[in-house]
Amino acid sequence: ELGRASWKLLHTMAARFPEQPTENERETFKSFLHMFSRLYPCGECAAEFQQLLRKHPPQTSSRGVASMYLCHLHNLVNDRLGKDEFDCGENLKEIYDCGCGDDD
C-alpha cells in the first residue's frame, strides 16, 4: 500500500511539474527525490531507491522528461520485484490529475 501511494505521489508531482521549469524548480525536484529516498519509512526500500538515484540521476529538464524518468525508475523497481511493467505510454497528466486546479 505504501509503495502504491508513494508512486502515485511521485507520478502526480511529475505530471504537475512545469513544462519549462526554472533552474530552481529543477533543483528543488531533484532535492525532493533525494530527501524522499532518505526519509522513506521502509529502510530496505529507501536504500534501494537511493541506489537507483545514484545510478540514474534525476532528469528534470521538463514535465515530459521528469514523467518519463519516473516511469523508468518505476519499471526498474517493478522488474526487481517481479511486477508488471508500468505503462509509460498513457497520458500520465490525466491519470495523475490531482484536481488541484490550473498548472500555475
Give a verbal description of the structure.
The protein has 104 residues and is mostly helical. The protein has one domain (2-95): Four Helix Bundle (Hemerythrin (Met), subunit A) (Up-down Bundle). The protein is 65% helix and 0% strand. The protein contains five helices and no strands. It has helices at residues 2-16, 23-39, 43-55, 63-81, 92-95. Helix 1 (2-16) runs antiparallel to helix 4 (63-81) and helix 2 (23-39) packs antiparallel against helix 3. The longest helix is centred in the C-terminal third of the chain and has 19 residues, at 63-81. The termini are far apart. The model has no long low-confidence stretch (mean pLDDT 90).
Number of helices: 5
* CATH architecture grouping: Up-down Bundle
The main β sheet shows up as: none
Q: What fraction strand? A: under 5%
User: Percentage of helical residues?
Assistant: 55-70%
Q: Please write the CATH class name.
A: Mainly Alpha
Total domains: 1
Low-confidence stretches: none
Tell me the span between the first and last alpha carbons. Answer: 31 Å
Q: Tally of extended strands?
A: 0
Instruction: Characterize the overall form.
Output: globular
- How do the helices and strands follow one another from N- to C-terminus? HHHHH
Name the CATH homologous superfamily: ERV/ALR sulfhydryl oxidase domain
The assigned structural class equals mainly alpha
Tell me the CATH topology: Four Helix Bundle (Hemerythrin (Met), subunit A)
Which radius of gyration do the C-alpha atoms yield? 13 Å
Mean pLDDT: 90
